[in-house]
Fold this protein.
Amino acid sequence: MLVNFNEILKMAKEKKYAVPHFNINNLEWTKYILEKMQELNLPVILGVSEGAKKYMGGFYTVRVLVEGLMKDLNITIPVCLHLDHGSSFESCKEAIDAGFSSVMIDASKYDLETNKKITKEVVDYAHPKAVSVEAEVGHVGGTEDNIYGDVFRATLEDCIEISKTGIDALAPALGSVHGLYKGEPNLDFERMKQINEALSIPLVLHGGTGIPYDMIKKSINCGISKININTELQVTWHKALVNFTKENPNIYDPRKIIGSGEKAIKDKINELVDIFNPNHISSKIEKSNII
Ligand code: 13P
């Protein structure tokens, strides 16, 4: 079932674990993630960036692909199909109209008042359709969809202000970056804790790739309930594929080449889930959260 993230994150916040958000790029990755999470019997959030949407054809294609795989593979876990870093109201609306169960509006490049205004517009459009909304304040830096940005840390006051729009989850930028870190990440755990204490909604950690596992655990303890992973699966898959093509230079069947990364991706998911949710706590879903 496609669900919004409200119940799965509420439970995670209460019981102090994190739900993985894995970015998808194509049919194969979507299939591997769904199969592995079904085997673990845990909910998953599938993140789709605007770049991935363009690559795969469009929001409608992505939604039909996900639902088709869920049907054919008998996927019964809660699956949230989430627009990652929607850059405008129009982009979020397009995803919602195509059947996405969740969106992130990232208006963090604007001043707070404009961010609030655009975020509120998205909330007003999404909520009557039971679609959940994530927003960002401050700015998660690094490289995503080949675009680079600097880090601006969120303030507690800005987090409180943006939460007044009625969002369901918040990604406060606190030092994490998209892509690979140069050196150790420098996360502001103290502010993470303050924000978590001040707000009732779940917090999201972007740039999950390369954060040492002790820092991931500390973040969960400070209130993080959703962790976004993109680059980590790309790097893992790429390494397996490079080895495969080196060892099998004459194999040209794309199913074998792309599929050579399947085990590596599934093993990495297992490893990450054991850190995010060591007791593998699952959640029950109420009808009102099914899209
Ligand atoms: P990474 O690519 O660093 O894992 O970040 C993913 C992310 O935050 C997607 O929103």
